[in-house]
Amino acid sequence: MSSPSSDSSTPRGEAWVWFTGLGLIVGLGMVIGLLSLVILNGVSVFWAPHVPVAQIDDGRTVIGQLAQRRIRPGSLANAPQYERQYQVGLRELNGNSYLWVDEAKVKAETFPADILGLERVENGPAFVRPQSLRKSDGQVLAITDSAFEAAFQAEVAAASAVREKLVEITRHQIGDVNAEMEAARVALRRAEDLRLTQEIAALRLKITALEGRYAALLAESEKVVKGGAVASLTSRDSAGRDVVIPLTQVVRGWFPNRLDTWGRCQLFCSRVAEFIFDEPREANTEGGLMPAIFGTLVMTVFMSLMVTPFGVITAIYLREYAQQGAILRIVRISVNNLAGVPSIVFGVFGLGFFVYVLGGSIDQLFFGDQLKYNNNTPVFGTGGLLWCSLTLALMTLPVVIVATEEALAAVPRGMREASLAAGASKWQTIRDILLPASAPGILTGVILAMARGAGEVAPLMLVGVVKLAPTLPFDTVAPFLHMDRKFMHLGFHVYDLGFQSPDSDAARPMVFATTLLLIALVVALNIGAIWIRNRLRARFKGASF
Amino acid sequence: MPATMNPATSRIQVRPSAEREGRKDYISIRDYGFWYGQKKALDAISLDIPERQVVAFIGPSGCGKSTLLRNLNRMNDLVDGISHEGDITINGRSIYDPGLEVISLRRRVGMVFQKSNPFPKSIYENVVFALRVMGVRDRSILDEACETSLRKAALWDEVKDRLQDSALGLSGGQMQRLCIARAIANRPEILLMDEPCSALDPIATGKIEELIHELKEQFTIVIVTHSMQQAARVSDRTAFFYLGKQIEYDTTEKIFMNPSQAQTEAYISGRFG
């Protein structure tokens, strides 16, 4: 063996392989880091940890869940001092749910079994030491009573049932009556204006009947509120004050230091279920995200339904029919550049064209009476589900066009020739042969479009997404799907929680949970589309051209 | 074997052509020239193809034989920048007649390609494709056409139990016979075959050649082939092309036994090309 000289043994040719590999590692690392950050923070929101009672050396006692721990700002880097943030709750008494404490000043932390965590309808959570429970039948149970916890949970469940009934009456039934009344009043104004005496009488009768129903429902709801005595909980808070909390205010209560793992899992699942299936409360910082999930899903599906046919027929024209030449090249370049236009520009276009021009015209043409007799309240001439879907469809159009063109070009020439030689016209060839064969490629484009559309927020803020929509865009009143309604969207929800929330400490965990949900939704939509594509691909497997 | 055998072609057996009735100039090509852009691919071709006979086009690669074949059903219309001179008539009518739609021309002139190209559909749908695009909806007509075509293509017994299976699951030889069945399903008058056996093994090739013999009872067949043996075995008449020119066109027997042109003899005896 010859002695290796430094010149000849260094592999010069492949010197940059490690560099390209490094790029992949950095990329993967960032993706994994992002996902694990979101998943860890998002999932831990729903987990109930032990809640300490902290003795502080100024004599105070703090009962609260540990929210975060950080290096105290201003402390020296080589001798870091930490501070802890406790979520103590009871915002109506403390002014703030959260409390920062120097770690050095915490003398002792104990975990007594009688700490009770409460999620409440208003004013956020509470961490207290209950003293006694006044049941709705007047019986008072002390915390030492062995039946205390069972009785407490039963009272919470009963109060929740009452609250749900109330929501059903006030939100849905009274809401329906109000909507009908509104429509009747508009009709009455029209009838009065046009002097349709018969109709005026009929409508007045109808309005009187609706007013009767409204009064009846109001009375019923008051009966529900007043019916039965309200159970309440007397507790001692951090400051040693006695606090009385009516159980109608309590959504959920748990003894964090008494729960076993199974109990914690049950609590976790019940919180996740609430998060996914319930409506938000407390300025969106608590409760569920059902309307936002539903809005995101419906909007993305509609966007796909609009962009796919539009993109596909455009691509068919460009690829199959248009005269290939300089003009077509310019058109192609323009279409590709459309994909690079900032999304907010599409939002402005959507507002200017779809909402004001198209929506305004629709209102003029079909909802003229509505405008005239309802204080110029627009129907389609304002942001809504339809305009959001259209705006995003426009934004993702280039993706679908490019993917479809490539898929059409990739269909083997033999298939095209075989079809034409069999006497098929060009359109028959496109419809029967080219489109089925390029369906997997087209779907890839739709998947990319969906992934981009589902996560887009900026343009939607201009054309119909709101912080809190009173009704879903889907209900039991014809035409069932209300494309004109404003709706909630997970992406906007994240922005709203993170930057517009009055209580940013309380909103922070929800930002992560909502982000996780948004990612999960986009992944689920993509998996669905990929599954369809793979099924289509399997049909063409083994094609040998 | 004929006594006047040319030593150079002794390996090749010629099947004597049976004279059938029919028009002698069923397909008539007159002074035909063809350009791809500026490049002249065919020059002054003139030949008559009789009805219900098999005519083979032979010649080295790039000699224009495939181009001529693909012009018979105007498949070259798909290419940009083409032009032609002269005329091709089928049964007396020009294929460039403005009153003749190219679709109806292609319905009368079926085509089988070099690479088998079944659609990614079921066997059944492949065979009846031409009928479907003609607008035939009647299930019984489609079923009958499917069976007849598959029988004619000698594929029926192999696939009759799995007509609804994907055509892409067939073997290479079966796929090519399926393409033949597809090409004859709407009963064209002429069948064009562009090197139909070049991707097949000898057994599958033998089956297709048998098939050509049976099909010529009903169809006029034009076949492009690189295999001299195949041309000799299946065709009644043979045309030899070289560099876009028609060198010789005569009965297969004459071409292989006693070619009048030196170039033809050189080519079929394997001395060039």
Question: Layout of helices and strands, plus pairs?
Answer:
The complex is a heterodimer of chains A (545) and B (273).
Chain A: H1 6-9, H2 17-44, E1 53-56, E2 61-63, E3 65-71, E4 82-87, H3 91-94, E5 98-102, E6 106-110, E7 116-120, E8 126-134, E9 140-142, H4 148-194, H5 197-226, E10 232-236, E11 242-246, E12 250-254, H6 261-277, E13 280-281, E14 286-287, H7 290-321, H8 326-338, H9 343-366, H10 368-373, H11 385-410, H12 413-421, H13 426-454, H14 458-463, H15 490-500, H16 504-540
Antiparallel strand pairs in A: 1-2, 1-6, 3-4, 4-5, 7-8, 7-12, 8-9, 8-10, 10-11, 13-14
Helix pairs in contact in A: 2-16, 4-5, 7-11, 7-13, 8-11, 9-11, 11-13, 12-13, 13-16, 15-16
Chain B: E1 27-36, E2 39-49, E3 54-58, H1 65-72, E4 82-90, E5 93-94, H2 102-108, E6 109-112, H3 123-127, H4 129-133, H5 139-152, H6 156-159, H7 172-184, E7 190-194, H8 202-215, E8 220-224, H9 228-234, E9 237-242, E10 245-251, H10 252-257, H11 262-268
Parallel strand pairs in B: 3-8, 3-9, 6-7, 7-8
Antiparallel strand pairs in B: 1-2, 1-4, 4-5, 9-10
Helix pairs in contact in B: 5-7
Describe the structure.
The complex is a heterodimer of chains A (545) and B (273). With 545 residues, chain A is α+β, with helices and mostly antiparallel strands. Chain A has helices spanning 6-9, 17-44, 91-94, 148-194, 197-226, 261-277, 290-321, 326-338, 343-366, 368-373, 385-410, 413-421, 426-454, 458-463, 490-500, 504-540; strands at 53-56, 61-63, 65-71, 82-87, 98-102, 106-110, 116-120, 126-134, 140-142, 232-236, 242-246, 250-254, 280-281, 286-287. In chain A, a hairpin with a 4-residue loop joins strand 1 (53-56) and strand 2. In chain A, helix 7 crosses helix 11 and helix 8 packs across helix 11 (385-410). Chain A is globular. The two termini of chain A are 52 Å apart. By secondary structure, chain B is of the alpha/beta class. The chains are: A alpha+beta (545), B alpha/beta (273). The A-B interface holds A 324, 412, 414-425, 428, 432-433, 436-437, 539-545 and B 73, 75, 78, 80, 103-104, 106-107, 110-111, 113, 115-120, 129-130, 132-134, 166, 168-169, 172, 175, 179, 182-183, 186.
